[in-house]
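#dry-run=false #mode=assembly
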Amino acid sequence: MLYFIEQFLNGVQLGMLLFLLAAGLTLIFGIMDLVNLAHGSLYMLGAYFAATFAAFTGSFVLGAALALAATFVCGVALEIIAIRPLYGRNHLDHVLGTFGLLLFFNELVRLIWGPAGMTLSLPGEMLTAVQILPHVYYPAYRLVIIAATLVVAALLYIVVMRTRLGMLIRAGASNREMVGALGVNIKLLYTLVFGLGAALAGFAGLMQAPILTVQIGMGENILILAFVVIIIGGIGSIRGAFVAAIIVGLIDTVGRAFLPDLLRAALSTNAALTLAPALSSMLIYMLMAGILVFRPEGLFPAASR
Amino acid sequence: MSEPFRLNPRNAVIAGLLVFLALLPLYTALSGNSFVMTLFTRVLILAMAAVSLNLIMGYGGMVSFGHAVYLGLGGYAVGILAKEGFGSGLLQWPAAIAVSALFALVVGALSLRTRGVYFIMITLAFAQMVYYVAIGLDRYGGDDGLTIYKRSRFGIVDLNNRTLFYYLCFALLLASIYLVSRVVNSRFGLAIQGARSNERRMRAIGFAVFRYRLVCFVIAGALCGLAGALLANHTNFISPAMMFWTRSGDLMVMVVLGGLATPFGPLIGTVTYLLLEEALSRVTEYPGLILGPTLLLVAIYLHGGIHSLLQRRTS
Amino acid sequence: MIRPLIAGTAALALLAASGMAASAQQKTVKIGFISTFSGPAAAIGNDMRNSFELGLDHLNRKIGGLPVEVIYEDDEIKPEVGVQKTQKLIESDHVDFIVGYIWSNVILAALKPLTDSKTMTVVTNAGASQLAGELCSPYVFSTSWQNDQTPAAVGRYMNDKGVKTAFLIGPNYAAGKDMLAGVQTTFKGRIVGQELTRWPDQLDFSAELSKARSLNPDAIFAFYPGGAGVQFVTQYAQSGLKGQIPLYTAFTIDELSLPRLKDLAIGIPGAQEWVNDLPNDTNKKFVADYKAKYKTSPSFYGAQTYDAVNLIDSAVKAVNGDLANKDGMRKEMEKADFKSVRGGFRFGNNHIPIQNFYLQDAVKTADGNYALKTVSLIVKDDQDRFHDKCPMK
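#status=ok
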């Protein structure tokens, strides 16, 4: 039971990370109708910036703040230079163009920071496990990730549901043409949303950096998971992304934690050892395919799409 | 192909390319550099996969982000049979085609109910599932892949003869280009293309769009499965990486780069993309710095791919 | 817009040119070098390339008295790319030797073209068990080890420390499976759990570490090469397990990961056949010159690659530069008659070294840096357990 609680927290923590990535992705997707494969690159940039600035300033928090700002600026610049011409084109052009950006950023990072990757060290007090329940210990930093993401999710909810910007975002997600027709500065809105998505991805990257270390291509595998999340949640829906992220995080973790033992009961040790990680990776894709077969627009389809 | 042949720049490039491909083994024989032929055998096989993807993605408007899975299925059909001692190509190749067609049937039946990005992602999901199944196959190498020690046997025809194998791939590529152009210009194909631009109208006229699309999807899968069988024979090696999502992405890039819904676009795209990669990795240590922006520029400015670029020069 | 076409034409011209070059061959030693030069693992590939270049410098850029040309190729950690690059080196560049290979799955995939073409090959890291056993080849040599040997040495050390129960973890590919099997050949205690994780893309080990905590073994054994090692050790420290369950490693803490792990690596033992402070003259020169030239410390990947230069040099010398005399070169190489940075070793019948393994530990040096140092000899003249399966005698 106690072991289960620990694994549950692991799943939630992975879900939180996925949510940060998926939230930006689903906003960009829902509002600009843009398939952005370069979203993972912004996650990578966030992590590299954080590692660089933290080393420069000597403070984790200061480094993180600077990295967040830098990723936002990068996102805005990227949108203006490269993304704008892609709006209104078909998804294939998006895939081709942003796939090119992904290649470009990987090489750029290698050129600037070298191939070896970097480390973002945690302050010493974060390097322990804390007791959260009798006999249940959990890494302190992972608890920080969960808490910080919940705060961000709450802020995002307030922005989207309670502010004028949020109103435009919601309107944009359900009817893009109408928002433009009402005289809203669509260009600026798009740039801001893209920058916001970039900052969220950068935040995910910098929060994860002390755990996963910082390396080239770190955004690619997690990007596909984030896509799975927004598809399950329904494109354009922040709420859907949140629910789906936690579901995906839990399923992935629970699969990794319990499948090997289940399989070992049925198969020889060697076959089970090889099969278990493969099967547990498959679970989330089975989940996505299953959901799409029965709900072709995800769990929380945006209103009129 | 339906239009009469005219000597314009586009047709000249295509004809030049075909002549070049046909004469390539001659160059190899003269220069002694057999790697060029190894490289181009690979180009031909991947071009065949791109041709099959073009059928559904270009003509049918079904953007599959998991097409590389059929390369893997075809390859594994050959590899698994070879490992279990069934070396005959007359068994291996039909098995590769059948497995791929069957898988396409199941995937198509389930995913053709979704639209747009949901379709892109569900095809990706099915491909990833097979990818992970292959990783889990301990007996067939798991993640490390499987070396195929003997190429498929076809009686006295020896596929180890590289020139012969090259021409076999070339012939099969031309055959699949012909097949696809026959399919799309038939009444069936015109219905598929009609459904791409306006599905509701086609349905209103009385076409069973879903079933038509499904058939199209199965043909593309089977064709790509055959390409997978060729690829396994070519590299003597199969691994799950053959069907990783980035490989599907590569196939999409090849088709779009060459020109969607054009008979020779996929071939042009494949040749360009693979040679560009090869050339850039020779001149710079950071090929992505050039390749990446090139793809972006193609996406932004070169609507319709290289094929249309050549066409524009005509008019 | 026309750029792709121009580049395509350029590529054809390039291919043609390389064909010409091959036909007009001069008397040089051509060496193909396959390693990883992209992605995070490029750090390993660069270390190997640096060491190889340093080795050539030490021989005045001559192999057996002949000028040398090295062609570096990147395998991207992908078996199928490794095969293609191997084919290219053999068929297009017509190399005399192929050196390198970090990853067991890459060398296994590339083995067929290598042995089919009888290319003289020196594997400088990958130690797949098949290579030592049924797939051994007269033309393939290793300057590293068979995968089992290092973890087996760790297993012996765990016995010495009185470890009774252990949890094993490693990545799900050829070497990972070999490593986990390797510990079990010598470790006498009970294995309470073992996990293979997705490779190379799984980077979060929280579920596995939680499992280890709940099983509460005496020790954890881990094998995570390259960047994954940094991740595993970092997360192990963050989970608070460091004080509770000691970690034993193989190929996880090295000179490449140490500058990133810093204090986190201290007190975590590992085994290795070479450590930078081994007290022989060849090694002292190698390490000192490497540090002077590249401003960083060489790793065992580099040391093994440096040995390859001298092994090849001895072979070309023995046949007086007659590179067609492969049997002559093979016979000379089997003697391992050169000065190794690990103080000498001999080859088994399967062309895998029979050598010592040392216990190494990460320490903080006087100048505030971090370094690996030899603690003790774990096993002397160790031979892999697959050599019986190799048909060569």
